[in-house]
């Protein structure tokens, strides 16, 4: 991987509050990289540090090898799509898109031609002479994209750009954004708190919480192999069960589930003792006998394509599972005791 | 609950309107009175307007009007520049030591009784040995115009999100370019409002001007006052009506500028 943005031990403090605790990550060229986390996790602060709107309190931000952490925003070859777009309300759509080119010293004819091309790319050629206020939210969003892409930045930063759109538009824009990133070949750093957005678009995702990076990996990595309870819980639905690791040998742990049944899990450098496993609800199936877990069904929730079963272990811990809503298979009635079997590798042993 | 349902609401409203506007209406109507009397109607005439421009008091009024106009222009311009800089510092400057003290200092002249400012200003000028005259009026006007210009400018600026300037900086604009090309055009309706308000306040001021003007120097309000002391003549009503017209014009202008500004607000 050719590294585009190399973030090294970035610290950001506001007075006594630390927003970023030495965050590091390397983002590749042409990568669609997402910073994902709940509000207040530091993802937007990190983005603003890359853009230059915030000074870092420590660490380096390298862009193709050059430390840009001390540069003014206008000296960074990085452009931003803002959450509320921040289109200049007193300028036409064309002048908005051409603004960055004008500041870079491009002549009028040339920059208007380029702005026209950018507007064509986002299907808004017909709206070039309008003011931003005369456009819909989705159209404003695309103007903001065209404006940020027009100066051909090395990196495009996107600060929750889809959060102001309604659901249908948001889903359509996801596809469009991904296509735009592939055709332009520009590195996208995308900030969101919406895990579905992150999972569907990103090449890699950095999950953040409380100013720390929790895990960096592909969508599949962080969904199927979360490293800790925060990531397992934050990404998708999961069951976190307390377990006892009896022994670890050659990267495989012998684990006792609540109820006494024993299974084996992949374990990387974990000591025996109490731990948690994460089990995704769709990776449990109902078996007549010999299940790994015994539960009592409490409630069946109808979700359309799926059914959700809310069950309880004898230990009192809740466990939910999902099954496809097909004609095949019996749906157990509330109150019945059923056995559950874990799919191979379904129980993921967590570090904390 | 609908305010109009309170008992006596209509009567109270009417009373307020009558008290506020009857004198203005009377003055305006009687400025067109053909009679020399200020109480009996003698038919419609422009004679008192002609008298203002060509009558015995015309040179005095002309000089006073010229003073008022130039002082208002210079004072409003200077005050608006200072107020704009102050507003940008206060609204965009982040947190700094003494910010609330600064805010109070800027706006204090609005709350201090004008007569106190008038006396204090006069004493100050005599202490530093400045001879009262055109210059002292100008300095006093610039000073008390600043808070009037500041308020609409700061209010407008507060409604402009900082992300516009950040977007400009992100798109390779220098600080100066971001201010000139983005922030200033967006705050312009507030700047114009502040300018017009300062202009009217300066044009209209009597108390402070009367204290610091010195002998022989007149602005329109002090000239009118001087004239009235010798008895009210209808030409005073004509001048007053013209000043009223200017004020109404400026206020209307300010209103439309603000309304146009709403359209460019995102």
Automatic annotation (TrEMBL), chain A:
GO terms for cellular component: ATP-binding cassette (ABC) transporter complex. It is an enzyme of class 7 (translocase). Residues 5-235 form the ABC transporter domain. GO terms for molecular function: ABC-type polyamine transporter activity; ATP binding; ATP hydrolysis activity. One of its GO terms (biological process) is putrescine transport. It catalyses: ATP + H2O + polyamine-[polyamine-binding protein]Side 1 = ADP + phosphate + polyamineSide 2 + [polyamine-binding protein]Side 1. Its EC number is 7.6.2.11. It holds the Pfam family ABC_tran. InterPro entries: AAA+_ATPase (IPR003593), ABC_SmlMolc_Importer (IPR050093), ABC_transporter-like_ATP-bd (IPR003439), ABC_transporter-like_CS (IPR017871), Mo/tungstate-bd_C_term_dom (IPR008995), P-loop_NTPase (IPR027417), PotA-like (IPR005893), Transp-assoc_OB_typ2 (IPR013611). Keywords: ATP-binding, Cell membrane, Membrane, Nucleotide-binding, Translocase, Transport. The complex is composed of two ATP-binding proteins (PotA), two transmembrane proteins (PotB and PotC) and a solute-binding protein (PotD). PANTHER family: SPERMIDINE/PUTRESCINE IMPORT ATP-BINDING PROTEIN POTA (PTHR42781), SPERMIDINE_PUTRESCINE IMPORT ATP-BINDING PROTEIN POTA (PTHR42781:SF4). Belongs to the ABC transporter superfamily. Spermidine/putrescine importer (TC 3.A.1.11.1) family. Part of the ABC transporter complex PotABCD involved in spermidine/putrescine import. Responsible for energy coupling to the transport system. This is Spermidine/putrescine import ATP-binding protein PotA. It comes from Fertoeibacter niger. The lineage of its organism: Bacteria, Pseudomonadati, Pseudomonadota, Alphaproteobacteria, Rhodobacterales. The gene is potA.
UniProtKB/TrEMBL annotation, chain B:
The lineage of its organism: Bacteria, Pseudomonadati, Pseudomonadota, Alphaproteobacteria, Rhodobacterales. GO terms for cellular component: plasma membrane. The keyword Coiled coil does not apply. This is Spermidine/putrescine transport system permease protein PotC. It is a multi-pass membrane protein. The chain crosses the membrane at residues 12-32, 69-91, 103-128, 134-157, 178-201, 236-257. InterPro entries: Bact_Polyamine_Transport, MetI-like, MetI-like_sf. Keywords: Cell inner membrane, Cell membrane, Membrane, Transmembrane, Transmembrane helix, Transport. It is found in: Cell inner membrane; Cell membrane. CDD domains: TM_PBP2. Required for the activity of the bacterial periplasmic transport system of putrescine and spermidine. Belongs to the binding-protein-dependent transport system permease family. CysTW subfamily. It comes from the Bacteria. Residues 65-254 form the ABC transmembrane type-1 domain. PROSITE patterns: ABC_TM1. One of its GO terms (biological process) is transmembrane transport. The keyword Cell membrane applies. It comes from Fertoeibacter niger.
């Amino acid at each position: 991987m050719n590294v585009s943005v190399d973030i090294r031990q970035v610290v950001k403090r506001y007075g006594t509050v630390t927003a970023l605790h030495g965050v590091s990550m390397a983002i590749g060229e042409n990568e669609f990289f997402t910073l994902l986390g709940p509000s207040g996790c530091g993802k937007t602060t990190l983005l603003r540090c890359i853009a230059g709107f915030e000074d870092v309190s420590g660490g380096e931000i390298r862009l193709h090898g050059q430390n840009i952490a001390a540069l003014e925003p206008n000296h960074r070859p990085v452009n931003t799509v803002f959450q509320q777009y921040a289109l200049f309300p007193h300028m036409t759509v064309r002048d908005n898109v051409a603004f960055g080119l004008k500041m870079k010293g491009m002549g009028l004819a040339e920059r208007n031609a380029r702005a026209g091309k950018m507007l064509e790319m986002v299907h808004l050629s017909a709206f070039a002479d309008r003011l931003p206020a005369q456009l819909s939210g989705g159209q404003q969003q695309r103007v903001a994209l065209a404006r940020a892409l027009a100066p051909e930045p090395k990196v495009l930063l996107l600060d929750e750009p889809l959060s102001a759109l309604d659901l249908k538009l948001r889903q359509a824009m996801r596809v469009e954004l991904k296509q735009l990133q592939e055709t332009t070949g520009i590195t996208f750093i995308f900030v969101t708190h919406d895990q579905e957005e992150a999972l569907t678009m990103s090449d890699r995702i950095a999950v953040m919480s409380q100013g720390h990076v929790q895990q960096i990996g592909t969508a599949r990595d962080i969904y199927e192999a979360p490293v800790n309870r925060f990531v397992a819980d934050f990404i998708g639905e999961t069951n976190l069960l307390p377990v006892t690791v009896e022994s670890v040998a050659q990267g495989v742990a012998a684990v006792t589930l609540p109820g006494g049944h024993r299974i084996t899990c992949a374990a990387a450098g974990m000591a025996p003792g109490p731990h948690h496993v994460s089990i995704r609800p769709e990776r449990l199936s109902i078996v007549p006998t010999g299940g790994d877990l015994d539960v009592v069904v409490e409630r069946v929730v109808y979700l359309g394509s799926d059914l959700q079963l809310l069950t309880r272990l004898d230990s009192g811990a809740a466990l939910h599972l999902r099954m496809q809503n097909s004609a095949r298979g019996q749906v157990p009635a509330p109150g019945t005791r059923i056995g559950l079997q874990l799919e191979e590798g379904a129980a993921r042993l967590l570090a904390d | 609950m609908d305010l109009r349902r309170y008992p006596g609401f209509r009567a109270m409203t009417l009373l307020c309107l009558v008290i506020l506007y009857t004198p203005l209406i009377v003055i305006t109507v009687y400025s067109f009175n053909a009679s020399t009397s200020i109480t009996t109607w003698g038919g419609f005439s422009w004679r008192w307007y002609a008298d203002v421009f060509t009558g015995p008091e015309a040179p005095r009024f002309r000089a006073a009007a010229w003073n008022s106009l130039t002082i208002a222009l210079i004072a409003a311009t200077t005050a608006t520049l200072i107020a704009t800089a102050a507003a940008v510092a206060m609204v965009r400057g982040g947190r700094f030591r003494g910010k609330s003290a600064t805010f109070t200092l800027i706006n204090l002249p609005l709350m201090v009784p004008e007569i106190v400012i008038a006396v204090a200003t006069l004493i100050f000028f005599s202490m530093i040995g400045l001879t009262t005259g055109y210059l002292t009026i100008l300095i006093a006007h610039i000073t008390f115009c600043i808070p009037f210009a500041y308020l609409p400018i700061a209010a407008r600026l507060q409604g402009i999100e900082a992300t516009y300037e950040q977007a400009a900086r992100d798109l390779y604009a220098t600080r100066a370019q971001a201010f000139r090309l983005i922030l200033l055009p967006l705050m312009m309706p507030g700047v114009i409002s502040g300018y017009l308000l300062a202009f009217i306040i300066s044009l209209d001021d009597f108390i402070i001007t009367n204290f610091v003007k010195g002998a022989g120097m007149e602005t329109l309000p002090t000239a009118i006052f001087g004239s009235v002391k010798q008895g009210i003549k209808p030409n005073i009503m004509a001048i007053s009506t013209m000043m009223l017209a200017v004020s109404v014009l400026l206020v209307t202008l300010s209103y439309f500028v603000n309304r146009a500004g709403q359209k460019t607000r995102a």
